[in-house]
Amino acid sequence: MSHEIYINRCIELAQNALGKTYPNPLVGSVIVHDGKIIGEGFHEKAGQNHAEINAINSVKNSELLKESTIYVSLEPCSHFGKTPPCANKIVEIGFKKVVIGTLDSHEKVNGKGKKILENAGIEVISGVLEKECQELNKRFFTFHQKKRPFIILKWAQSKDGFMDKDFKPTQIGNPFTKQFVHHLRSEEHAILVGTNTALHDNPSLTTREIVGRNPVRILIDFNLKIPGDFNIYNEEAETLVFNSVKESNEENTKFIKIEKENFLENLMGKLYEHQIQSVIVEGGNFTLQQFIDTNIWDEAIIIKNENLVLENGTKAPIFDYEPVKVEHFRDNKVEFYQNLLF
What does pTM read for this prediction? Predict the structure, then answer.
């Protein structure tokens, strides 16, 4: 069997932890002896064992490890964090070969893990299904390479391009797309809205429709207009409030002062400082259009109700791109976009 098959299995394993490993990357690992998988593992949660260690611990006969090849979707770490370096453990065990999907662009690793293995005389092959492994950790790589979170724009609109009816909260999606959105929230680190959306919809921004983790809530509220009893301030999730009034920590809410000038650029810097790796922007027209106009976005998801005509209300953002994929959820169409220019 080829290296690609085993690295693909590493990717499948890693995806089991989507949304659960922040700020760490998604990593899967497989151990192969004489053409047979004898161990598997993935990084399940930050602070817990890395994928390679879980795979090693899953092998019943540890005597086989020295004659085995270990596959890992991301370069083994070379630094001490909450856990010891995986590269050192691989050397200690004495694996004869290591196959890596993609190198780690994080400055603490970035080829150092591979070098530790090679210096120990272990055969190392890297760059197997490299694009797929980088796609798996698009959030992690964007965060470390661009010094900002991975940005996903998301909104729903009617057939005639409105986000609501007569500027009042309007249900556009159906129960299936609602579940889809809550699943999406569980996979991303944070979710962002502006003042108008918070006042207009009083959203909770949680994953109540499914069993899943709630994202960190980000509220842009320069003049602190949102009342303290609104849903965004409840105890269900951590909330970061970017404003021009105060800087303070209050229970599970953090108020962060930010300048209005060059706002989005400043916001990206602040979110990077707070280790936020990905953000779904679920704001209204004004907030979404700012991200579109400044070209600060990586993916976009538009839910369209082809049977709904609203005639008047908040217009959907101006967005002239072609979808890379379209899915149908009964009477709703979900379009997926990628920003290939940024």
Answer: 0.92
